[in-house]
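Hi Q.,

Before the meeting this afternoon, I wanted you to have the zinc ion prediction in hand. No need to reply - just skim if you have a minute. The sequence and ligand are here:
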Amino acid sequence: MTIVATTPYDDQKPGTSGLRKKVPHFQQPNYVHNFIQSIFDSLEGFEGKTLVIGGDGRFYNREVVQIALKMAAANGFGRVLVGQGGLLSTPAASNVIRKYGAFGGIILSASHNPGGPTEDFGIKYNIGNGGPAPERITEAIYARTKEIEDYKILEAPDVDIDTIGTTDLGGMTVEVIDPVADYAELMETLFDFPAIRAMFAGGFRMAFDAMSAATGPYATEILEHRLGAAAGTVRNGIPLPDFGGHHPDPNLVYAKALYDEMMGPDAPDFGAASDGDGDRNLIIGRDIFITPSDSLAMLAANAHLAPGYAAGLAGIARSMPTSAAADRVAEKLGVGMYETPTGWKFFGNLLDAGLATICGEESAGTGSNHVREKDGLWAVLLWLNILAVRKEPAKAIAEAHWREYGRNYYARHDYEGIDTDAANGLVEALRAKLPDLPGTKVGPLTVAAADDFAYLDPVDGSTSSHQGIRILFEGGSRVVFRLSGTGTSGATLRVYIEAYEPPDGNLGLEVPDALADLIAAAETLAQIKERTGRTEPDVIT
Ligand code: G6P
Ligand code: ZN
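Predicted structure with the ligand bound:
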């Protein structure tokens, strides 16, 4: 074991989901080493225990897996489970941590951000429950990165991570595992595979876009091999270090080809996609895009149709910017509803405490208590299970849902790569206005309430403030303003817009029409054009 002297970097603060930077940034001398040592220095009691290592296969994944293995050995871990080829989707990593009682895991991913020599990379730490480290740990890691003076590493040749089996690395056991097997087995316990298999056998057609990212091998094994979907159901199924040059974010912009196909004349019955590390999902029925917020509500309302959830839900949780569609389901089911800040880590305590069973975010994340990460393929399989049992198209299920609960029209407008000072100025100006807003009119709308969202965790009593500016209008509509915590250049302003129509209201509007007054109100309130120089959002999801 070697102790190597190093000097701190001042920019290793983990964001919404770990440390994310461009690859060349990570390639600076000791940049990766400093961060990994800071993770280990912030943990206690891992001597001799198991660590899980895996990533989404993007550029630099293999190199960092080797560094992490050698540092884990030098720091005293007893065993590392690493996905073959360094690959583990984020939900699969969460499952492996839980299933094998690991102390924690290092997940290498920048999620839905592009990959390649000049694109994004990321490192995050997950704790023993399989979920992202809570803020108390990420803050300790950040504090450590600012003082670090040395790191420990084993001088050894690279480990063969491509052959399944066990090797020794300086007294630590390295087990290279099949990245798919444990995950596929878990899915079989949750869903009615025979019913879904029968649906495919009956001619049901599906298109799944793995976006040349981590979900490819999982989707191919589960959908095509175990469930009998036709060969070719999974497109872009081979993970590539640069995701084929694409942006592996399953939204209507980056998965436009799938969307167009689903709206076209020969559309399959069901379309879906997942992101770089396999935790996000996009759901498109024939002739209908299901927003992530609606998907959460519809999955929650129908979850009992899947064997894993037949006993019903303990509760539902959603991030604050996610629409309130799921709240109405929770109300009807008579179960708890929890509204958390953005970031899957906030669901961990609710899931561990048994308060929530299903969680979701507007950012295309949905999941349950089966792991402690959101899970793209899980959401797809739950949809398939529901379709197989109800024997109705997704569009009919969505329309029936709206007739029962009403419809939360929803869109998110993203202004990407804007000047950081301008973005902060915009949020500060809004915050300053908040006390005076209630009762004021903005166009035809009247502000009912306005605040800067703060969260009190009901399980551990911790608080998180400044989690987004909420402006609620009379009638249940709202706009929310937030700065992204996952961007890697400049700032991203997210504007979340939601209008509620009750069951007897107008349920068949085009989304932009339903939201027009709110979009205008957002501009008036935040002066987006004036402060950022932008007249249009870069991405609308
Ligand atoms: C990651 C997190 C999610 C979060 C999303 C958006 O995917 O895991 O929990 O919702 O980022 O975060 P942002 O801060 O960019 O809006
Ligand atoms: Zn992701």
